[in-house]
Amino acid sequence: SCRLMIFELENNDLGSPVWNIEYEDPVTTNWSGYNISVGDLDLDGLMEVYTIAYEYYHLIVYENMGSHDAYAYQTDFYVSLELYERGNQSIIVANLDQDTTNELYAVTSGTNTLDGALLTPGYFYVVQGTNDVSQLTFENFNFFNDYPGGLRQINIGDADGDGNPNLYLAGHYNEALYDWEYLGGDPLSPENYIEHTIFMDDTTDNFTPGNDQGRVRVAKVFSGDIDNDGEGDLVFTSASFAPDKPQLYMIEYSDELSIGDKNEIIPDKVTLGQNYPNPFNPNTQFSYHLPEPGMVKLAVYDILGKEVYEFFSGYQHTGNHNVLWTGVDNYGGPVPSGVYYYKLIAGSKTMTKKLVLTK
């Protein structure tokens, strides 16, 4: 078990330090030490602290209360339905379009067996800023993409020096480093980015059977000008103990940064994904994509066509949207086991999918 602690260096002297424990969370969580991120998502001038517990990507948020040594819990919720989904420096708060709203960017680990067999993918989400971080929920998460080998760290930089901010994603078991370059426009819309694959290992994975140590398991990434030569650098690490693979990689930008640019992942029509898991109990999730903004209704219906639960009805922006249903009706009560349908109406387009609740 882990708990959050905040230390302050009182005398500004690392040679003979005097430390003060500013805050100690009385509640323990499951291995939350993998992720400590800070930011001001709600732009109230008070910094937040984000931790991720090693269970269902359990996001826990604290905030400074505006005075010395004063912190308070704000909210917590699960992002994943997978027990061993986690984060590893997997959150950043940024304002790519330099407007009056911050965004939060998050990546998840995916899950795998101890010998490296992949079970579920990792996900890349973008979260719109909120006026009150205590009201943040999974419903604010916008799905951008999934990666079969999972993701570890996300970081921000501009290695190619073109003035466009880049989000660097450590593609763990994909043995890859990805770059989402922001081109301008709504930062919640995937079409306003272009994805580059900066690095992908193509060497033989010479590992001992029964473990996952043969791969270049990209884990950490840093962007900057390391050697002060005016060229952008990317430094990333591998979490593998493979004797035939490096643990530290350094890439310097030289006009051709990527080995592949991908924008085919962005659909140009309304799409509605199948829920996962299905059948489910008690929660399930799915995503849908809007190629343009407009009026939208999304709801769950029983086999007789009666509305059971309405997710949303109103105007929505372009992009991918992620949805979690907890098996309740419009009054908050649990619905019985059975077959249900979720229907998306977007303009003149209507799409329906079946889901099954088993208890």
Automatic annotation (TrEMBL):
Pfam families per record: FlgD_ig (PF13860)
Phylogenetic placement of the source organism: unclassified sequences, metagenomes, ecological metagenomes
Gene3D superfamilies: 2.60.40.4070
Record's protein name: FlgD/Vpr Ig-like domain-containing protein
Start and end residues of each FlgD/Vpr Ig-like domain: 286-345
NCBIfam families listed in its UniProt record: Por_Secre_tail
Alphabetical list of InterPro entries matching this protein: FlgD/Vpr_Ig-like, Integrin_alpha_N, Secre_tail
